[in-house]
């Protein structure tokens, strides 16, 4: 088990990581999700031993790794830019780490073959990596990481340089491989869809802290704060004044809210209205349609009051419509 203990790090005199702690269990994939500059890649580099924390430490199976150099931690790392050796072919790229460990040639051959099979690149051994597509190069990088049979796999925005279709294909491959190998993994990304597709548990970083933690379903159903709801694109976020009996005075009128918090009358609260219209809901909000965009199997409809909703049938721009919405209290 990997354990991160109270990691602190500053950048240009400002806190970047402010007492970060979490664990990664056997076979678990944990995703560090956050905007650019949230410190997630720095945290990954600290775990890998490529950068030092100012305080705190990382341990694996109870052993403090502070004094252990990166190459002896036995962690596999996959980067966005592949980090392949352009002068070597596919076989030699995958075999590189094994040769550094001075393994017998027959064992190297077996590991290279099994790793390439795992990423569906059998038969590519003699190809030059410079002749491969971006998706194929990333598969080679993954095979290289898998070949050393690391104790932990780490991914730093691995799909950021790929187009949407390639990202989806490789994400499915990654999920299959992680389940098959049962390796613990840390996956860093700013993309919510990637995080939710691959992670067993998501940690959302903001202002140097983990502001929400849980399974993808738990985080989506209960964002817990206006920041997390906004970052995930969960829906319309606005404020209101609590007037009692689960009712809030807002710019859209008095709304009934779904709330498990305790509020005093007159207290300001943050609210979330999911964009999918509710079938049965007390809150009916009226607005004039200002924009309609087709998105896959539905329409994103924006109203003049600033709300947006998803509808199965497209209204006309300028049309006045009523939308029943469920409103949740965030804090």
Task: Explain the overall architecture.
The chain is an alpha+beta fold and 331 residues long. The chain has 2 domains: 2-225, P-loop containing nucleotide triphosphate hydrolases (Rossmann fold), CATH 3.40.50; 235-329, no CATH class. It is 26% helix and 36% strand. The chain has helices at 40-48, 90-100, 105-118, 134-147, 164-181, 192-198, 216-221, 226-232, and strands at 2-11, 14-24, 29-33, 55-60, 63-64, 75-79, 152-156, 185-189, 201-206, 209-214, 236-244, 247-250, 253-258, 268-273, 283-295, 298-303, 308-311, 320-325, 327-329. The chain has a 6-stranded mixed beta sheet with strand order 6-7-8-3-9-10, with helices on both faces. Helix 2 (90-100) packs across helix 3 (105-118), helix 2 (90-100) runs parallel beside helix 4 and helix 3 (105-118) packs across helix 4. It is globular.
